[in-house]
Design a protein that fits this description.
Helices cover 29% and strands 18% of the residues. The protein has 18 helices and 26 strands. Residues 563-578, 598-609 have a biased composition (Basic and acidic residues).
Length: 657
């Protein structure tokens, strides 16, 4: 975890000189009352207008109690003036709000081995449950201002643990106190933003206002996805529900909107509630796509209410039972919901899924959309449709050359009785930068296909059939001009028994959809259809999923002559380096690789050029797909087109459960 954390946060750490103005500018009237309230509670603050924090200590633990006193004094003032925070989980009785606690001696309960021993110095929980899924604000204390970089690394560890446990978390705030200096830190999928240092003693009111503003943030600004609703099970663990737009779900439900009486948001959009049954995938990272895939099931509250009314209103036993049987609803539908922070410069995965919906061996599309964001107060109603949730973009950012990364040794508390002193690094100097924070858009992709990992195969036949079906799915995908480029045992999956298919294109008639201008691919599609016919038009056992790294390929104007020198260009997966905008740089993504008739069309729209840039599939592909050999290696006994396609698929990676 250590090296991965350092790598993902390299060159994405920025100082925001206006951090307080951008994120922690609370209601001025309330802040004034909070400052007065704090002065009534603390005599030194009242007399000297300064908080009491020791100027020099021999051990950072000597700072825990005084810092804790200051923070909880401010928090109590916020609770008294602003009111208690909204409960994370609805409660039926009055409960006292949580206070910040000293947690440096005891690890927080965790679901992951790599976070079981992490102990924030101070922490604020959402409620009484002590678990990483319930952490609201982690706080790191360091003895000296020179320990700022070490403190940033520690805080990053806590942030990673929070993101790895909270599927509803969009961004996270943390606080670091080094000596008497406080730094506010904001983590999101584009990296780290941090404030200038605030002297808690000499700038007592500035710090009080900033920390109070942080505590007054509502759940959305605090970093939680409002689509999620929470409850607790008998063990006290969170149970997640999510509200999805009815307009998206109804595309496949077959029900009429007039038949529904579901939730409605403040925007007037009708919603339907689903329970999160299982986490199929959770990328435990701070930055990047941060993909989460959930298995969700429709909540049957409406069905239960209908049955209850029918039972109550029935006058005769036989009549009542017959009425219930007649109005019985089908079993709640299940979906796979993918949450990710997509790169806007790449074609959305949902667009591809929608295009290939119903094809053999590929995941089935049910809907996709960018999650609406909270519009700024200055945004007019007419522009609200363009407002989506995305990583924050801030002008005037600065960098510290000594804090471009968090590559620094953190003393291990588990070794020896005396804690080794961290290295001191001067991180006070900043300068403007032209580097741009990666822009990522928060998106949902809804799929009606729910995959099962290959290692759960019950027999060798099921295992091999699933891989075969995924290969056939890849074949059809390639015939449409799309290369997957991320084939792995996590993206080749089995289909659950009893899986319903909303569309079966492999059983439909009609000619190839690739177009007459791409004859080779049209012929390849015809061969694929013949193969599927020979398989008896059965339903697939396996499927290929996750099209986030896909690329559109071009068709060469003529085959590569066999007598030309044999060269091979292969793009290894590890070669995908991030550019300043956070996208992937690929060697084959060059304009001169596009045929002339395609290049003219692409150049007419610069935005589409970024998202749907075609590549030459002879020279670019993942390691396992060395497609240059399709044209100059005539060693198969297959027919021309079929042989090319099968040679291309012969490089399928070895998969093991």
């Amino acid at each position: 975890m250590e090296l991965q954390l350092e790598d993902e946060l390299r060159d994405v750490i920025f100082h925001d000189p206006k951090f307080i103005d951008h994120f922690l500018a609370g209601d001025n009237d309330k802040l004034t009352k909070i400052v007065k309230h704090c002065r009534k509670q603390d005599q030194q603050l009242k007399r000297k207008k300064k908080w009491s924090i020791p100027a020099r200590v021999s051990d950072e633990k000597e700072l825990y109690a005084p810092v804790l006193k200051v923070l909880n004094t401010i928090k109590k003032a916020v609770d008294d003036v602003h009111g208690f925070p909204e409960a994370l989980v609805p409660v039926t009785e009055d409960v006292e709000p949580e206070v910040i606690i000293d947690s440096h001696k005891y690890p927080i309960n965790s679901d992951l081995a790599n976070t079981q021993l992490i102990k924030p110095d101070l922490v604020l929980f959402q409620d009484a449950q002590r678990h990483w899924e319930n952490v609201r604000l982690p706080i790191e204390i360091k003895r000296l201002p020179g320990h700022h970089k070490v403190g940033m690394k520690q805080l990053s560890r806590y942030a990673r643990a929070v993101f790895a446990h909270q599927i509803h978390r969009r961004h996270l705030y943390g606080l670091m106190v080094c000596g008497q200096e406080a730094t506010f830190v904001r983590f999101d999928r584009a990296g780290i933003l941090y404030s200038g240092r605030i002297d808690i003693v000499d700038q007592a009111e500035v710090f009080t206002r900033a920390f109070a503003s942080l505590l007054m943030l509502d759940r959305v600004d605090e970093g939680l996805d409002p689509a999620f609703k929470l409850s607790r099970n008998s063990k006290g663990r969170l149970v997640y529900y999510i509200d999805l737009p009815e307009s998206e779900v109804d595309k496949l439900s077959g029900e009429l909107p007039s038949d529904k009486k579901e939730l409605a948001t403040t925007s007037g959009q009708r919603m339907r509630r689903f329970e999160v049954i299982e986490r199929l995938c959770h990328r435990e990272s701070i930055c990047g796509r941060a993909t989460i895939v959930l298995r969700i099931r429709e909540v049957a509250e409406r069905q239960q209410q209908t049955k209850a009314k029918a039972k109550k209103g029935g006058k005769g036993k036989g009549k009542g039972k017959g009425k219930q049987r007649a109005t019985q609803n089908p079993e709640p539908r299940e979906y796979a919901l993918k949450l990710m922070w997509r790169d806007p410069d790449r074609e959305p995965e949902g667009t591809v899924l929608e295009q290939v919906h119903g094809m053999f061996g590929l995941a089935q599309h049910a809907g996709h959309w960018d999650v609406p964001g909270r519009p700024p107060s200055t945004t007019s109603a007419g522009n609200n449709a363009e407002c989506v949730e995305k990583t924050v973009q801030v002008d005037g950012l600065e960098v510290c050359d000594r804090l471009r990364d968090i590559s620094i040794v953190v003393p291990d508390e588990g070794k020896g009785e005396e804690l080794e002193e961290p290295e001191e690094v001067d991180t006070t100097e900043h300068h403007p930068t032209s580097h741009v924070r990666p822009l990522r858009i928060y998106s949902y992709v809804l799929m009606s296909s729910i995959g099962v990992p290959l290692w759960q195969a019950e027999s060798a036949e099921q295992f091999m059939t699933a891989i075969l079906d995924a290969i056939l799915g890849y074949w059809g995908l390639f015939n449409l001009g799309i290369m997957h480029r991320d084939v792995s045992n996590g993206n080749v999956m089995m289909i659950r028994k009893g899986q319903a298919f909303d569309r079966r294109k492999w059983k439909e008639g009609g000619s190839s959809s690739t177009g007459a201008q791409i004859r080779a691919l049209a012929e390849s599609e015809d061969v694929l259809r013949q193969v599927l016919k020979e398989l008896g038009h059965r339903d697939p056992t396996g499927m290929l999923s996750d099209f986030d790294l896909h690329a559109r390929h071009s068709l060469p104007s003529q085959p590569t002559p066999a007598d030309k020198g044999r060269t091979r260009t292969v793009r290894l997966r590890d070669e995908d380096l991030s550019n300043p905008r956070g996208g992937k740089r690929r060697k084959g993504d060059l304009v001169h690789n596009v045929p002339a008739e395609q290049a003219d069309k692409v150049n007419n729209n610069k935005e589409d050029e970024k998202k749907q840039r075609a590549i030459d599939y002879r020279t670019v592909g993942v390691f396992y797909f060395k497609s240059i050999y399709i044209f100059d290696n005539d060693t198969t006994g297959y027919s021309s087109v079929h042989g090319r396609q099968c040679s291309f698929l012969a490089g399928w990676p070895t998969l093991s459960p």
